Amino acid sequence: MAGNGSIRQRGKDSWELTVSLGRGPEGKYIKRTKNVKAKNKTLAKEMLRQFIYEVETGQYTSLGNVYFRDLVALWREKHASNLAIRTQQGYESNLKLRILPYFGHLKLSNIKKIIFKISLMN
Length: 122
Known about the structure:
Layout: E1 5-11, E2 14-23, E3 29-37, H1 41-57, H2 68-78, H3 85-103, H4 113-121
Antiparallel strand pairs: 1-2, 2-3
Protein backbone atom coordinates (compact mmCIF):
# COMPACT_ATOMS: atom_id res chain seq x y z
CA MET A 1 0.00 0.00 0.00
CA ALA A 2 1.24 3.47 -0.78
CA GLY A 3 2.59 5.30 2.20
CA ASN A 4 2.98 9.00 1.94
CA GLY A 5 3.38 11.41 -0.88
CA SER A 6 5.24 14.62 -1.51
CA ILE A 7 5.27 17.43 -4.04
CA ARG A 8 8.14 19.51 -5.34
CA GLN A 9 7.89 22.53 -7.58
CA ARG A 10 10.04 22.11 -10.70
CA GLY A 11 9.21 25.34 -12.50
CA LYS A 12 6.37 27.73 -13.08
CA ASP A 13 3.17 25.66 -12.96
CA SER A 14 5.22 22.42 -13.00
CA TRP A 15 5.26 19.98 -10.08
CA GLU A 16 6.78 16.58 -9.34
CA LEU A 17 4.55 14.21 -7.38
CA THR A 18 6.20 11.37 -5.46
CA VAL A 19 4.54 8.43 -3.71
CA SER A 20 6.66 6.27 -1.41
CA LEU A 21 5.94 2.53 -1.41
CA GLY A 22 8.42 1.55 1.30
CA ARG A 23 11.36 -0.76 0.72
CA GLY A 24 11.65 -3.57 -1.78
CA PRO A 25 13.17 -7.03 -1.19
CA GLU A 26 16.71 -5.69 -1.74
CA GLY A 27 16.21 -2.90 0.79
CA LYS A 28 15.95 -0.12 -1.80
CA TYR A 29 13.19 2.46 -1.51
CA ILE A 30 10.41 2.05 -4.04
CA LYS A 31 8.69 5.19 -5.24
CA ARG A 32 6.55 6.33 -8.12
CA THR A 33 6.93 9.81 -9.56
CA LYS A 34 4.86 11.82 -11.97
CA ASN A 35 5.31 15.33 -13.40
CA VAL A 36 2.17 17.44 -13.66
CA LYS A 37 1.07 20.95 -14.58
CA ALA A 38 -0.82 22.84 -11.85
CA LYS A 39 -1.41 26.56 -11.37
CA ASN A 40 -0.71 26.46 -7.62
CA LYS A 41 0.33 24.27 -4.69
CA THR A 42 -3.28 23.58 -3.67
CA LEU A 43 -4.07 22.06 -7.07
CA ALA A 44 -0.80 20.12 -6.97
CA LYS A 45 -1.78 18.67 -3.57
CA GLU A 46 -5.14 17.59 -4.99
CA MET A 47 -3.35 15.92 -7.91
CA LEU A 48 -1.06 14.20 -5.39
CA ARG A 49 -4.07 12.79 -3.52
CA GLN A 50 -5.41 11.43 -6.83
CA PHE A 51 -1.97 10.03 -7.71
CA ILE A 52 -1.73 8.25 -4.32
CA TYR A 53 -5.17 6.74 -4.94
CA GLU A 54 -4.14 5.53 -8.43
CA VAL A 55 -0.95 3.95 -7.05
CA GLU A 56 -2.78 2.30 -4.13
CA THR A 57 -5.50 0.83 -6.35
CA GLY A 58 -3.12 -0.32 -9.09
CA GLN A 59 -4.57 2.06 -11.67
CA TYR A 60 -1.25 3.86 -12.21
CA THR A 61 1.23 2.32 -14.60
CA SER A 62 4.46 3.99 -15.51
CA LEU A 63 5.09 3.96 -19.24
CA GLY A 64 8.82 4.51 -18.86
CA ASN A 65 9.84 0.99 -19.87
CA VAL A 66 7.03 0.18 -22.29
CA TYR A 67 7.94 -0.01 -25.97
CA PHE A 68 5.60 1.42 -28.60
CA ARG A 69 5.35 -2.00 -30.30
CA ASP A 70 4.08 -3.47 -27.00
CA LEU A 71 1.41 -0.78 -26.78
CA VAL A 72 0.35 -1.62 -30.35
CA ALA A 73 0.13 -5.31 -29.42
CA LEU A 74 -2.05 -4.45 -26.43
CA TRP A 75 -4.25 -2.24 -28.61
CA ARG A 76 -4.64 -5.08 -31.13
CA GLU A 77 -5.62 -7.49 -28.38
CA LYS A 78 -8.12 -5.19 -26.66
CA HIS A 79 -9.58 -2.95 -29.36
CA ALA A 80 -8.86 -4.01 -32.95
CA SER A 81 -11.60 -6.65 -32.94
CA ASN A 82 -14.19 -3.91 -32.30
CA LEU A 83 -13.44 -2.32 -35.67
CA ALA A 84 -14.85 -3.14 -39.09
CA ILE A 85 -12.64 -5.47 -41.14
CA ARG A 86 -11.70 -2.78 -43.69
CA THR A 87 -10.82 -0.36 -40.89
CA GLN A 88 -8.64 -3.00 -39.24
CA GLN A 89 -6.88 -3.64 -42.54
CA GLY A 90 -6.23 0.08 -43.06
CA TYR A 91 -4.87 0.51 -39.54
CA GLU A 92 -2.66 -2.57 -39.87
CA SER A 93 -1.28 -1.31 -43.18
CA ASN A 94 -0.44 2.08 -41.67
CA LEU A 95 1.12 0.46 -38.63
CA LYS A 96 3.25 -1.89 -40.71
CA LEU A 97 4.40 0.57 -43.37
CA ARG A 98 4.48 3.95 -41.67
CA ILE A 99 4.30 3.82 -37.89
CA LEU A 100 6.10 0.77 -36.48
CA PRO A 101 9.28 1.29 -38.54
CA TYR A 102 9.72 4.70 -36.87
CA PHE A 103 8.35 4.08 -33.38
CA GLY A 104 8.26 0.32 -32.73
CA HIS A 105 11.72 0.19 -31.16
CA LEU A 106 11.23 3.32 -29.00
CA LYS A 107 10.13 3.42 -25.39
CA LEU A 108 6.98 5.48 -24.92
CA SER A 109 8.84 7.81 -22.57
CA ASN A 110 11.25 8.67 -25.41
CA ILE A 111 8.65 9.58 -28.02
CA LYS A 112 8.39 13.34 -28.06
CA LYS A 113 6.29 15.66 -30.22
CA ILE A 114 9.26 16.64 -32.35
CA ILE A 115 10.08 13.02 -33.24
CA PHE A 116 6.47 12.47 -34.21
CA LYS A 117 6.36 15.61 -36.37
CA ILE A 118 9.63 14.75 -38.13
CA SER A 119 8.42 11.23 -38.93
CA LEU A 120 5.23 12.64 -40.47
CA MET A 121 7.29 14.83 -42.80
CA ASN A 122 9.12 11.82 -44.29
